[in-house]
Input
Amino acid sequence: MHCGLPQELRDHINTFFVEGSYDNEVIVRQENGNKMAYYVRQPLSADSYQWMEDPFFAQLRAHCFGRRNTRDLLIEYYRTRTFKFAHRELGLVRAFLNIDELDLRARPLDHIRRLHLEFEPFLICSSRDKKRSDIGIGTFLATLEALAVTQTPRITTIIHIDLAQNISSENLENSLLGAASVILDIAATVTTLVAQGVKIEVVLEGGWNKTSGLKVCTRLLSSLEDCITQIETARRQE
Output
């Protein structure tokens, strides 16, 4: 009966169906082989949660709804979720965008609206393996540049630069200079991509105060020096 309804009505039903009790942020990781894994937060109490595989996507994988309905629901799932990649998973972004995991001719690239990429400059700067560090920034910049090649103006990409992780307290000045260099590389790439029509938002964030947190420079990369000054001040007050 569902398949016989007008498309507009089916879209409303699909939207209602994919809205669950979990949040709309989906963490993308890689399991065995090339299979993607999708995780959501399951609340345990008012202030705690655990990660679990997204139960809705598990149902889609099981083809519980028939091929046509599954495709419609998958597309709506892509449209209504924010897909997040942690720093160590950034190499998966291009594969994720082009995967047709359920063989339904429905790629994330063609339907998703929000992409969230987390980047940790200090993780690259603190790496003892220089070659590994080069691959880190290279992979990230290549991922950003791939967004321009796809020509998908519907996708908004949020670049979350986390300045609170993996900082080296042994040589803070060099760590900050290294991180600043990495951020400037990102800024140059972002500037080029925005000029090409790619929708990108950049957030710089640091949070060493475990009680209240410290959020700095939550705007486009317009004041890097102020941001570094605030980070240094926060470290001294820790």
The CA atoms of residues 7 and 139 lie 40 Å apart.
